[in-house]
Specification:
Elements (H helix, E strand, L loop, with lengths): L2 H8 L25 E8 L8 E8 L2 E6 L7 E4 L4 E4 L1 E3 L7 H4 L4 H4 L3 E6 L11 H15 L8 H11 L4 E4 L1 E2 H9 L8 H16 L5 E4 L10 H8 L9 E4 L7 H15 L3 E3 L12 H14 L4 E5 L4 E5 L13 H9 L4 H15 L5 E5 L12 H8 L3 H11 L5 E5 L3 H9 L3 E3 L20 H16 L5 H8 L1 H6 L16 E4 L20 E6 L2 E5 L2 E2 L30
Parallel strand pairs: 1-4, 1-5, 6-7, 7-8, 9-10, 10-11, 11-12, 12-13, 13-17
Antiparallel strand pairs: 1-2, 2-3, 5-18, 14-16, 15-16, 18-19, 19-20, 20-21
Helix pairs in contact: 6-7, 8-9, 9-10, 16-17
């Protein structure tokens, strides 16, 4: 039986009154009229429990009632034969400053994402010293005409509250950003004074509402930190319920050791752990996915609150410079480019780069995504094919692109197995993420060839892995996109359908929902998502953007606004 037939016939007559699957207490509208009623949909409440047919009444930005509602709303959505879920929570998102460029958040909201958790992989919007702030401010003025008038995570959240984009936004504070703020790009252990400065920066970000600490230990300068440094900084999360989220030190040959380090940090600091985009990269490492899952299960059984997330693709996205080891990138882009040109170092760097390509399989396992206009013809092209067309050695092409682009070239790497991807998506301790940014097929956010995950992650899970492959049930997939990440972040009023919860809603057709974005043509919206409501604001109607936006900054549980303090406006002295 097709899912829609099941929706219409199998549960259409379910009696909901007093159902244990819809949490009490219910909030009555009294004699008032609901602002919005979503009528006749099949509710997947986010908990992973079985679906039920019911109406939802929304008053302001909250769900007011759930049940069989006779009174009309000021506005109504006919959800007959459709699935209704809480808005999707992207536990690992890179939609941050791009939301100031285009607040409609087209590629995000059309997926059903209503909450972005940004500040990932150790890189957050602040804290910035004078030099970093000036660089970001000048780039956004020049490229997008957007004024950056803040330099801390708290300032970014305040700006989100003023802009009110289509999606709500939470942010972690990034270890790499904090390390740069405290000690630049130095490849050495932090001094006691620098460690204290980093802990203070993390503490201030949490006080400003940051929802956790992220690390990017495969990137510079995060890769220069010891596990003791990470434990010390993660200790600032203790007692907040905020997680430590980590892009681990290695995701291929050193995967299992890196996972042990991530779990160790959580255990020693006494904080929850979120392993970012768990993968086993490179054919020779595919077997490690099962071992990694066993390690996560064992750690959880041993008392560590550990989960992971994953996007539904076998390719990752990063910078082209990451074909080289972190030591080559120490000291910043200028030093990296100097090393590439240094006859005493260039042969070693070439060998290491070619070894990385051997791990991936071939030069065509690398696709260029982001360049300046001068090299726009390279966007979307596989390196091997492009090099052959140009009559150029692939490695020489890599070096030339990095040099001409000042080190800033984006890439996609095809390095994971489909079998492992399916296994990770279905695992009960896994959540769904995009690891993608916000884009649009028009305007400045269309000027790249990004990973399709920025447009299609959540619909792809629902269409490919739920409907077509039956790797997991629809209720399990929705749980991984809603209540599970919300609970991990300590946000009890999000990710669930119950009276009193935030009115973030997604209405979609389980028989039609699908991603359309491809690696060759990524700027394509998904299909089958009919309506998206963000805090009671009807933003996607019949698959189209209404232009109405209701997003807000989401701060950590227990956050209380404090009197404003002066923004940091200095470079910390180097010890």
């Amino acid at each position: 039986m097709k899912r829609r037939e099941f929706v219409r016939h199998g549960i259409a007559g379910a009696v909901l009154a007093g159902s244990a699957h819809l949490p009490a207490p219910w909030v009555s509208l009294g004699r008032g009229r609901a602002d919005l009623v979503v009528r006749g949909g099949v509710l997947y409440d986010g908990t992973g429990g079985p679906p039920r047919t019911a109406d939802i009444a929304v008053a302001g930005d909250r769900i007011a009632e759930i049940g069989r509602l006779s009174a009309p709303g000021v506005a109504e959505i006919d959800a007959s034969g459709m699935a209704v879920a809480p808005g999707f929570v992207d536990i690992h998102s890179h939609a941050d400053l791009s939301l100031l460029v285009n607040p409609k958040a087209e590629s995000r909201i059309r997926q059903g994402v209503t909450l972005e958790v940004a500040g990932q992989d150790g890189s957050s919007v602040g804290p910035w010293d004078d030099a970093a702030f000036g660089s970001v401010r000048d780039r956004y003025r020049r490229t997008y005409g957007v004024e950056i008038d803040f330099r801390t995570p708290g300032g970014f959240l305040d700006r989100i509250d003023r802009v009110r984009p289509a999606v709500s936004v939470a942010t972690m504070v990034g270890h790499g950003t904090v390390r740069s703020y405290a000690m630049g790009g130095a490849n050495r252990p932090a001094s006691d004074r620098e460690t204290a400065a980093m802990r203070q920066a993390v503490r201030e970000a949490l006080a400003d509402g940051a929802i956790g600490l992220s690390s990017g230990l495969e990137y510079t300068p995060g890769s220069f930190a010891s596990r003791e440094e990470m434990v010390s900084l993660a200790e600032e999360l203790r007692g907040t319920s905020c997680p430590y989220a980590t892009h681990m030190r290695n995701e291929d040959d050193g995967l299992l050791a890196a996972l042990e380090e991530a779990i160790h940090v959580g255990r020693m600091a006494g904080v929850p752990v979120q392993v970012s985009h768990l993968k086993a990269q490179g054919r020779r490492n595919y077997w490690k996915a099962e071992a990694a899952l066993a390690a996560v299960e064992a750690a959880r059984a041993g008392g560590v609150d550990v989960h992971f997330d994953r996007y539904p693709y076998t390719a990752y996205a990063t910078g082209l410079s990451n074909l080289f080891p972190a030591t080559a990138r120490a000291g910043g882009t200028r030093r990296f480019l100097e090393r590439l040109a240094d006859p005493s170092q260039a042969p070693t760097l070439e060998r290491l780069c070619r070894e990385k390509i051997a791990l991936l399989g071939s030069w065509d396992a690398v696709q260029i995504t982001r360049t300046s206009q001068a090299n726009a013809a390279a966007r979307g092209r596989r390196l091997g094919d492009l090099a052959q067309e140009l009559g150029e050695d692939p490695y020489r092409l890599v070096v030339r692109l990095l040099r001409e682009e000042g080190g800033s070239v984006g890439m996609i790497g095809f390095g994971m197995s489909e079998e492992n991807t399916e296994r990770l998506l279905a695992h009960p301790l896994g959540m769904i993420c995009s690891d993608g940014g916000a884009y649009a097929p028009y305007g400045p956010l269309s000027a790249s060839s990004p990973h399709p995950r920025g447009y299609g992650s959540f619909p792809r899970v629902l269409g490919l892995y739920v409907r077509e492959r039956a790797a997991l049930s629809l209720e399990a997939a929705i749980h991984k996109m809603t209540a599970l990440p919300a609970r991990k972040l300590g946000l009890p009023d999000r990710g669930v359908l119950r009276p009193g919860a935030v009115a973030d809603l997604v209405v979609f057709d389980p028989d039609a929902v699908a991603d359309r974005a491809t690696f060759e043509n990524p700027h394509q919206y998904p299909e089958g998502i009919a309506h998206v409501v963000v805090r009671g604001v009807h933003t996607i109607r019949q698959g189209e953007h209404t232009g109405a936006t209701g997003g807000q900054a989401v701060r950590r549980a227990g956050w209380v606004r404090k009197p404003p303090s002066p923004s940091p406006s200095r470079s910390l002295p180097r010890a």
